[in-house]
Amino acid sequence: MLESILKRIEAEHAQESVWIVGPETGRLLHFLLRVVAPKIVVEIGTSVGYSALWMGSALGKNGSGKLWTIESHAQRFERARANIEEAGMGDWIHQVKGHAPEIFPELQLPGPVDFVFLDATKMEHQSYLEGLLPLLAPGAMIAVDNVESHRVGAMGAFVQGLHEDPRFEVVEIPVGSGLLIARATNEAD
Ligand SMILES: C[S@@+](CC[C@H](N)C(=O)[O-])C[C@H]1O[C@@H](n2cnc3c(N)ncnc32)[C@H](O)[C@@H]1O
Ligand 1, from 76, 121, 145, 150: best to mutate by most atoms within 8 Å of Cβ? Predict the structure, then answer.
């Protein structure tokens, strides 16, 4: 069931301008969530729900954890709703309609955030990060897509800043459009 929904979205991506991370990055996000077993995940940039489904499927297998995914575009938000419902993940994927970071105070999260996936407007990533910092659990992970495809231009300063920020350990993985993973250091580090 999930596989057929993902394949359909991949076919839609090939035919129209629906942005998705693609299967390799989706599989990696799934793997990371299986390993980290986060309780609270926040995604910025749902689009039609492709990456949310990969992450949601990991949370479903984990048997715990919830995803809050934020999307500002009304039509994509509704398409994501249909896809998430079809996949039967509505109980643990919470869609939030609005613009990050202004919408953060309305998230009403039940605890600190363990895992973040940033995949929205590249020029706004710094503001997402600053808005999320007070919400992060010690040791939280932040995954950022497009660090390779958008390094020259929109993402350059943001990526460099993360590498130089002593509050994070950072790796980059050459998968898809380039995935950066930062881990917030905690007092014990
Ligand atoms: C690259 S797509 C996300 C793809 C999705 N993560 C996936 O792989 O299936 C980016 C999405 O972020 C949304 N977006 C851009 N800026 C936003 C913001 N500030 N707040 C919420 N959504 C935003 C856009 O409308 C777009 O649908």
Answer: 121
